[in-house]
Amino acid sequence: MHSIRIWFVDGLEEYMESFKDVFNAAFKFYFDEAFNVSYYRLDGVDRYLDSSGRINAKDLILDPPDKSEDGGHIDIFLVDRDIYLPGFTYVFAVTHPPLSRIVISLFRLLRKYSLVEFEDESVVKERLFKEVMHELGHLVGLDHCDNKLCVMAFSKNLKELDSKVPYPCEVCIEKLEKLSK
Ligand SMILES: [Zn+2]
Ligand SMILES: [Zn+2]
């Protein structure tokens, strides 16, 4: 049974109810019914901020705020600021498989389309689903895929993220089957 803890910052509280389905669908894909999920508030992210307000994803993943430190869980940290790694201006998400920790930034995923006044919830949910599918793929041992449509392809911007399908390609599915044996 996989114990999954989802940690979210204050600014994301209003979205969490609608994100639950997204997470559960991705967990079902990888873990079948063998998982339980709990939700927690993520406090103390200020100490990971750089001078331009971005979060250093490596610091957060290697040294998360106190309560999240006890092991045996898959921890997913959801933040509303941009996150970065050395060598990147921003990334959408980062996974550290040995520690079973994932950081996902909603900063860009929540970006509104310029022609509509309202946030398109289904677009945001689809983007988040792709990110969760991609990062969980890394967690269970998948690498990046050369197939641009595959959810395991690396996306350097929203356009690339939006053009992927939300599932792994046949080649990745085959790898997954080998990994689970
Ligand atoms: Zn990746
Ligand atoms: Zn693939």
Report on this model:
The chain has 181 residues and is an alpha/beta fold. The chain has one domain (2-179): Collagenase (Catalytic Domain) (3-Layer(aba) Sandwich), CATH 3.40.390.10. Helices cover 33% and strands 18% of the residues. The protein has a 5-stranded mixed β-sheet with strand order 2-1-4-7-6. A two-stranded parallel sheet has the order 3-5. Strand 6 and strand 7 form a beta hairpin. Helix 1 crosses helix 3. It binds zinc ion (2 copies). Residues 145, 147, 150, 152, 168-169, 171-172 line the site of one zinc ion. One zinc ion (ZN) is lined by residues 145, 147, 150, 152, 168-169, 171-172.
Q: What's the number of helices?
A: 5
Q: Give the ordered list of helices and strands.
A: EHEEHEEEEHHH
Number of domains: 1
Each distinct ligand:
zinc ion
Under CATH, the topology is which?
Collagenase (Catalytic Domain)
Low-confidence stretches: none
> What is the overall silhouette?
globular
CATH superfamily: Collagenase (Catalytic Domain)
Strand content: 15-25%
Oligomerization status of the protein chains: single chain
- Computed over alpha carbons, the radius of gyration is 16 Å
**Residue share in helix:** 25-40%
CATH architecture: 3-Layer(aba) Sandwich
Strand order of the largest sheet: 2-1-4-7-6
The number of E-state strands comes to 7
Provide mean pLDDT, rounded.
Answer: 91
CATH class: Alpha Beta
The end-to-end distance, rounded to whole angstroms, is 17 Å
Largest sheet: 5 strands, mixed
